[in-house]
Amino acid sequence: MITYLKEAKRKNVILSKRKIVIIGGGFGGVKAALELAKDSNFDITLISANSDFRIYSTLYRVATGGSMKLASVPLEEIFTNRNVKLVIDTAKELNRENTTIKTGNGQIFTYHALVCALGVTTNYFGIKGLEEFSYGIKSPEEANALKDHLHKQLITDGKTDISYVVVGGGPTGVELAGALPDYVKKICKHHGLPKRKIHVDLVESSSRILPRMPKDISFRVKHHLKKSGVHVMTNKTVQAQTADALMVNNKPIRSHTVVWTAGVTNNPFFTDHNFQLAANRKVRVDQFLQAEPGIYVIGDNADTPYSGMAQVAIEDGKFVAENLKRITKGEAPLPYIAKKPIYVMPAGPRWAAVLWGKVRIHGILGWWLRRAADFMAYRDYEPWHMAIRRWMAEDEEEESCSICNDKLSRVLYESGSV
Ligand SMILES: Cc1cc2nc3c(=O)[nH]c(=O)nc-3n(C[C@H](O)[C@H](O)[C@H](O)COP(=O)(O)OP(=O)(O)OC[C@H]3O[C@@H](n4cnc5c(N)ncnc54)[C@H](O)[C@@H]3O)c2cc1C
Domain 134-263+342-415 classified CATH 3.50.50.100? Predict the structure, then answer.
């Protein structure tokens, strides 16, 4: 303990300069910046590759008719009148000796404590054709590209795809597969296309969807997806993709719409800078979420028990900010205690499964809990009035079909040019 306090005291001397550099403007990084900004003793720089804060849990809605507004909040808006210097740039080089971060544009920032919250990137596991031909919903741009594709395909072909394939039976794949049949029907109706059966395949390599959830939840969700017209395929491995088919267990599934949600990997920044990685490629951290003295790694990047969820990244951001404040005041930092998240998984319109400790909730009540969670996510980053407006906009968007606003497509379709 004495050694530990001596060490804390030593760090305190360094941290008294209070220059905190945060890299990554997502759930963890933005939360850490907001919490630190409440204390005027810190000089905070947030370096983010994107100019907006992205709410990934709403991306499946963007892909199925919702507005981009739902998933993207300008960082400028979040940090108006806050004690945070916002830098829209990519963190490229970490110089441990000089304690600096150099960005893609060549700017150099000195830190006394560095917080890394860079999120994960898509992993195609080297499967041939996937990167070229599949769609994704890992960013608002990807979600919008998928939505555009769904519209254009219906307009140009005048019929639905043979099959809409979602690969990955985790929460993201389940959300999207559940929402697709209803949305495709909606846009068909809008264009007066004949009613057809919409075929959605959900492909999962494990023996059940939601393999990290208890079995009864997997079973319930699978049952609900089936009722909504989703064909759940388990124990199926994707081998390759071409322009018009996906090879699964040596058989082709004919489709021009394959969405890959089955793999992410840690940000390459950590291998590039020789961080110590666990077997899952996340960064090993100590009880204070430090990868090494003065360098904190949080959210999806850290090898913590429930890493990979927004709630965890938010808690990590708060935790690190609190400890930095404590250290600056000369107090001992507190050890990290991982909190079990609440799992809320929508699987179609107005239906969600919830796992809250030992409690399970399914159906419309689950869906309302999801809506409440969405609101909390907005409220965590925006003032009440803005969070309420964004949250209310979700319902308005859901009722409308976004192709109604796509003037070019409408003109082409109505003139018979396509
Ligand atoms: C489609 C989808 C749906 C999801 N749904 C849910 C859900 O319902 N519930 C839930 O709890 N979790 C959900 N998650 C997971 C959740 O979004 C993540 O766990 C959370 O975003 C992690 O926060 P983070 O701060 O670690 O990383 P992120 O939020 O990913 O933020 C990282 C940020 O760093 C930026 N960045 C990357 N590299 C650099 C660099 N070199 N320099 C500067 N900036 C950089 C990125 O652009 C990004 O803005 C979902 C994820 C996805 C993809």
Answer: yes
